[in-house]
């Protein structure tokens, strides 16, 4: 995971396809998580908040007035979700562009009294792709047998693997284009340096010749 903390700015973290974690957040802090997602992939995020209680020296469930604001941006930094939630929440979105999606959370509270001790703990669970499917619910709804449900799971996994492979090819193509562009720039810079050295050498030779002729040494 990649993590960086800044007040009122961004925290960047790599998240695996299904990963639960918790973190502490301050009154003015915003924490953002980067998820590399293939196109047309569903993502579900669930969170709950806890406030630090000095009397019990432990984290307790947050008050109803405390909530979180969730903002999600696609790889082109276009906002695809921006919404206020309560102390516990669930958000869902589907990617339409492959690449790094930014999931940001910050408290919607402006009352410092709610942050007694300056600690707010946020439990976050993010699921990607086939991990978002509730297979027991699907089996009950479609009346699937255990074998049929297993086949459904395998088909979903194969579909997700294909999306991941397509995304890896997309990344490889972008990396190749970047490498070729860099190599071309290095080549032209080397040529420019060589030309500058040649021109400088010719100028120095002419300058020295003029100097010697002026001194009548040649």
TrEMBL record:
Domain GOLD: 30-151
UniProt cross-references to Pfam families, sorted A to Z: EMP24_GP25L
TM helices/strands, residue ranges: 186-205
Principal localisation: endoplasmic reticulum
Membrane topology: Single-pass type I membrane protein
GO cellular component, one term: endoplasmic reticulum membrane
Keyword tags: Endoplasmic reticulum, Membrane, Signal, Transmembrane, Transmembrane helix
Protein's cellular compartments: Endoplasmic reticulum membrane; Membrane
InterPro entries named among the record's database cross-references: Emp24-like, GOLD_dom
Family: Belongs to the EMP24/GP25L family.
Protein name, entry field: Transmembrane p24 trafficking protein 4
Species this protein is from: Lates calcarifer
Gene: tmed4
């Amino acid at each position: 995971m990649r993590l960086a903390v800044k007040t009122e700015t961004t925290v960047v973290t790599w998240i695996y396809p299904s990963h639960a974690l918790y973190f502490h957040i301050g009154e003015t802090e915003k924490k953002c998580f980067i998820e590399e997602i293939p196109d047309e992939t569903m993502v579900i995020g669930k969170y709950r908040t806890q406030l630090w209680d000095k009397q019990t020296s432990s984290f307790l469930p947050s008050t109803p007035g405390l909530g979180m604001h969730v903002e999600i941006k696609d790889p082109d930094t276009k906002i695809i979700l921006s919404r206020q939630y309560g102390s516990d929440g669930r958000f869902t979105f589907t990617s339409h562009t492959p690449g790094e999606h930014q999931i940001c959370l910050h408290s919607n509270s402006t009352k410092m009294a709610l942050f007694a001790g300056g600690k707010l703990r946020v439990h976050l669970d993010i699921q990607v792709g086939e991990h978002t499917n509730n297979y027991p619910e699907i089996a009950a709804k479609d009346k699937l047998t255990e074998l049929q449900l297993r086949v459904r799971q395998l088909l979903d996994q194969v579909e997700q693997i294909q999306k991941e492979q397509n995304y890896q090819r997309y990344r490889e193509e972008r990396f190749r284009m970047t490498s070729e562009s860099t190599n071309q720039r290095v080549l032209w810079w080397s040529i420019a340096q060589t030309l500058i050295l040649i021109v400088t050498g010719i100028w120095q030779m002419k300058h020295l010749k003029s100097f010697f002729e002026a001194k009548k040494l040649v």
